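Figure S4 source data
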Amino acid sequence: MSRAVCPGSFDPLHNGHIEIIGRAARLFDEVIVAVSTNPAKTYRFGTDERLDLCRQGLAHLPGVRVLPMDGGLVAGFCRDHGASALVKGLRSSLDFDYELPMSTMNRHLADVETVFLPTGSEYAHVSSTLLKEVASLGGDIGPFVPAIVLQRLAENG
């Protein structure tokens, strides 16, 4: 069985994430969406809520499982869960430049390969940070997030 991990903070999950995870689900028997927490980051949604939003937003994708990744290295998470690959979406060459050294280190640490998938052009400009900013200023992000995320953002002001 081929298993891959798609790591991220998913704060919040958006359609660009869903597109990459859906494509990964067609390439691998199982995809684990690893919802990470970085103590140095400030999150709009807590870990439990991000896990819930991912589970609801990805429920339609077969072979996708959502798990917390509490600290530690993603290489160790992959090893602990029997994953042979990491899947990363790339919006631009800047993402590639950022991700390439990490992919080399992950291969060194856990013999895990990184599969880069270019994001669909309709989501190349989308990031969780941008969406949170637009939403906080009253902009419509409905076309870029699942309905449950839009609802939770509205509830949490």
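Figure S5 source data
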Amino acid sequence: MPAPFTADDTTRLGDTFAQVVADGAAPGGVIAYGTTSADPRFLMAGTVAPECGESEPGPDTLYDIASLTKVVATWPLIGQALDAGLLDLDAPIRDFLPPMNSETPSGEATVRQLIAHTSGLRASTRLDLYRGADLPLHELLCREPLEDAPGQHRYINRGYILLGLALAHVYGHPLELLGDALWKTLGMDSTVYGPVSRTPQVAPTELRIPGAPRIWGAPHDDNASLLGGIAGHAGVFSTPTDLAVYVSRLLTAHADGDKHGLGEWLHASLVPQAPIEPGLDRGLSWILAAGGRVAYHHGFTGTSLYLAPDTGRYLVICTNAIYGGNARAKIAPLRELALKTISAT
């Protein structure tokens, strides 16, 4: 039986969330929490954003989930492609992209290295520098020299851009259609690649230029925007309800011993691939903590997913903390408490 959250757990989370919002870290947001044995519960704080008037965030507020795209879109699609024999974890990514006519040092990185951030690819990604190029994007990326020897952990978005391009190629369908089909199967009815309409149900993000419109409904990530909002590393919008459905389905599949689906893929992804820092390792996409008992991932806009397969518990944080600039430091107390809470046995 999954271990439920205690009243003390939820009180601490609620109080810390309210304080973080009161301190100006985010206009507001939603925490979804629960276990596989019950419907999710929600903690709300603040407002969606000043542009939305007094609208309060709720389970169906749509958030730009930023790098959670890596574990909500790219990671599960890779698991499906591996099961279908369309990808090989230990083969170079160039094998799963359209043919190229030049040297491709970055194309030698394996699928495993890309998904585990151990590829050695150049970390800085500026797709705007490719404007007007004659070659297709996958070849431009693969032609880039390596920045480090493969094997060391370094968080690299361009690896997931390549993975998104490879998924579209091996399936013969655009990435957004692959995502839509996945989310429909999982019951995630509100999850989509952006852009989306500007409404009070959509959380605005950052004001980049004073006097210009705020980013609202478009992906905050510049590279995702250049790709039309559809990329392997960012671009997805989702709700607290949908994300709770997602992690609950993952945990249920894992507990049921799903041998040919997301349960087995999650099990495989909880094997450490490289150390990040003492106490943290990188699995396949996920960060592993508490001796591998917890997997989590953050999004730059102020979102997070935490799951504990052994206890069947999960936590989802949806905020638009990027509304006022870099979100990491501002919501660190909430993320630290979430990790501590989900790690408790």
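The mean pLDDT is 96. The two ends are 13 Å apart (CA to CA).
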